[in-house]
Amino acid sequence: MNIRKAIATDMPRVLELIQELAFYEKEPEAVVLTVDDLVRDGFGERPLFEAIVAEVNDEIIGIALYYNRYSTWKGKTIHLEDLIVSKDHRGTGAGKALYNEVMKIAKVQGVRRVEWVVLNWNTPAIEFYEKSGATVLEDWYTVQMNENGINNIIKQ
């Protein structure tokens, strides 16, 4: 298995994996992102994210997509948006390899925290994260405002 930095030509496969994750998370219609969006937003003048991929025999079997954030308590942090391994390659160590690589990147960047969210029913992921030493915060809620909500606020 090879872990490497993603390049723009990887984005069609990255989008396939994102769609696979959305299906797994029971929201297949939620993905509105396109390959063009990924290329523009990840490889333009001011990239909004970075990604690494796991490959076996030149086939991308997993990705980790992340970006820098800033915490008023910790300073520079990394947000791991998604860590995805294709269904056929789960349990092969690809997820752990991607996860470990993100942590190495965090160490090199000197960040004080890596954070992400996990669905409360995704027991295998929660157990993996806890076993690795991560803390699953059960007393914090993820809050989101969708596009319609944004538009409604602006109209007020």
TrEMBL record:
Q: Which residues form the N-acetyltransferase domain?
A: 1-150
PROSITE patterns given for it? GNAT (PS51186)
InterPro entries annotated for this entry?
A: Acyl_CoA_acyltransferase, Diverse_Substrate_AcTransf, GNAT_dom
Pfam families per record: Acetyltransf_1
Q: Which UniProt keywords apply?
A: Acyltransferase, Transferase
Q: Which CDD domains match?
A: NAT_SF
In alphabetical order, the GO MF annotations are: N-acetyltransferase activity
Family, according to the entry, reads as follows: Belongs to the acetyltransferase family.
- Its protein name is GNAT family N-acetyltransferase
